[in-house]
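**User:**
Make up any protein.

**Assistant:**
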Amino acid sequence: MLRIPTPERPDWKLRAKEFGFHFHTMHGAPYWDETAYYQFSLAQIEQQIEDPTAEIHQMCLEVVDQVVRSEELLSKFRIPESFWDQIASSWYAREPSLYSRIDLAFDGDGPAKFYENNADTPTSLYETGFWQWLWLEDQVNSGNISREADQFNALQELLINRFAQLKQQMPDHTLHFACCKDTDEDRGTVQYMQDCAEQAGIACDFVYVEDIGLSDRNRFTDLKDNNISWLFKLYPWEYMQREEYGKNVAGSHCRFLEPLWKSIISNKALLPMLWKLFPNHPNLLPAFFEDDPKASSLSKYVRKPIFSREGANVSVHDNGETVLASDGPYGKEGYVIQAWHPLPRFGDNHTLIGSWLVNDQPAGISIREDSSPITQDLSRFLPHIIL
């Protein structure tokens, strides 16, 4: 695994405008960074990233099967009691999922270590599935990268195929896509998903989360008062479960992407459950609920809120001292702790691998790097190749 500096494409910002990549720079700082790329061998991808990704995902599904059968565990996952039966029903019915992303620390040598599962609302999809592939094509055509180079990236193809499968289960239904207002990255992600669904032959529409209404028959509706019977929402289940309309999910006759059972494995309480069920697994780090007496066995650890996203409210502790911390709105729901395993460093860059799955199958990787050991929402995205 190498980090290789490379010249930027001279026209890449014009290309980004052409293809609708409007969030390549955020708050004046680069988000997309093509001044370097990461290089992997095929064996590294297949044996140390792809295979463990598939195995970890199956382990996560086993956690779901355990949690839905236990009121005690559902409580520890901070899931409101009014949703317990709904989540269990969603799981037992095997309501279909679309995609997810697990985050891994990998330096090219030892086993990749699992950090967490972004199973409900993962972003950086467009830049993974389309934009970094376009970068590779351009760099190969310009002679900057060998024509022998490849990329672990079947994401777009697999998304379109999965949407085609889901269409067979929901024939003649319009798939609404939704995200919050004033979020360029989320809007770009949802637009990309909608484009993939339309390529699969699905009739699609878009509505902002804030504009979703409720009819007198308990049906969610868009601004045209059309019923929403099928909804892809880039909006977390833990928010929905605590809002006024949360009580209307039951009986709404709406199928959701992602399904309700995903609220279990998008939750940091997943980490101690995995360690309990699969202790000493080579791809796992020791993890415990903060109030577990076994937590004292970790002298250096990362403290994570159960509902944290994008590295918010995460802190690193060493023998009782806080050595690093990030701000954010989370924490009231409780914490888990996970053994400290630092991200690999390439120069001043701490590098995180996001490994994608579509329909339970590994689909590609994204790479984020930051000057901080905690990856956050503005951490830079860099492309990769296999050579």
